[in-house]
Specification:
- The chain is of the alpha/beta class.
- It has one domain: P-loop containing nucleotide triphosphate hydrolases (Rossmann fold, 3-Layer(aba) Sandwich).
- It is 36% helix and 25% strand.
- It has ten helices and ten strands.
- The strands form two sheets. It has a six-stranded mixed sheet with strand order 6-7-8-3-9-10, sandwiched between helices.
- Strand 1 and strand 2 form a beta hairpin.
- It binds adenosine-5'-diphosphate (ADP).
- Adenosine-5'-diphosphate binds next to strand 2 and helix 1.
- It comes from Actinokineospora spheciospongiae.
């Protein structure tokens, strides 16, 4: 492991003069399972949009030596930064294996998709194991349960060699069992990667976060362990005080 980490310095995003992200600085280490929380409108999604090239931003966001802000979306993906959205975007007509194969082959050119292979590429096999869908590899993605689709989408980032994963409410709509499975999955992938989870589910956060950043009105309100941010009176005020 190279010990790279995600470092944001004074990130700012404005929409027509409205400041949605107002000078956010934070560092997420490899092996960290960082939860990004905060009330609606705090700027969480916009911050992730800035890191993944969907909106323009000022300041700096680096992973290793690479500047991520204001780059093209596909370039950021190639730099090893992957993202999921609340609604999983998998190819429903294709099997689990084909979905992973397409993601893995995105950089290899279209011919790989047409070739019939007798063996499954190593990175795809590894991803299947990590996301726990090995037994369902030949199932159509469209028939998977909601949670399984989310895991498949995470697997698609893994085969693209994502080193930084930004996950938007990965457990929204999941059963308690699926939430727990997802937490275990995030622990497995987080051990060797940098993971940021935007989340509203506080129970899930308490169970799995190794660190938490609380955003409020575009700024970092509090940061620390779960216990530290929960004990922070400013956090209590934002969540309970109104
Ligand atoms: P969160 O994800 O924490 O709920 P968002 O990042 O979605 O917050 O939104 C932060 C603020 O920026 C909100 O006030 C929202 O209305 C505003 N905002 C987000 N996207 C846009 C946009 N494209 N144009 C104008 N305002 C936006």
């Amino acid at each position: 492991m190279n010990g790279d980490y995600l470092e944001l310095t004074d990130v700012r995003v404005t929409f027509d003069g409205f400041v949605a992200v107002d000078g956010v600085s934070m560092t997420v280490l490899q092996g960290d399972l960082r939860f990004l929380i905060g009330p609606n409108g705090a700027g969480k999604t916009t911050l992730v949009d800035a890191i993944t090239g969907l909106v323009a931003a000022s300041g700096s966001a680096t992973f290793g030596a690479t500047q991520l802000l204001n780059q093209k979306v596909h370039k950021i993906a190639r730099l090893g930064v992957g993202r999921t959205f609340q609604t999983a975007s998998v190819f429903e007509e294709l099997t689990v294996l084909q979905n992973l194969d397409i993601a893995a082959g995105a950089g290899r050119g279209p011919l790989t998709l047409l070739r019939r292979r007798s063996s499954v590429p190593e990175e795809v096999e590894e991803a299947l194991e990590i996301i726990g869908l090995g037994d369902l590899r030949d199932k159509q993605a469209g028939v998977l349960a909601h949670g399984q689709k989310q895991w498949l989408e995470i697997g698609m980032l893994l085969v693209q060699n994502a080193r930084v994963l930004l996950l938007d409410e990965p457990v929204a709509g999941m059963s308690a069992h699926e939430r727990d499975e997802t937490g275990q999955l995030l622990r497995r992938i987080g051990a060797e990667r940098t993971v940021v989870v935007v989340e509203h589910d506080m129970d899930f956060m308490r169970s799995f976060a190794t660190s938490v950043t609380v955003l409020h009105a575009g700024r970092v309100l509090s940061e620390g362990t779960v216990a530290e941010v929960q004990a922070d009176p400013r956090v209590q005020e934002v969540y309970l005080g109104r």
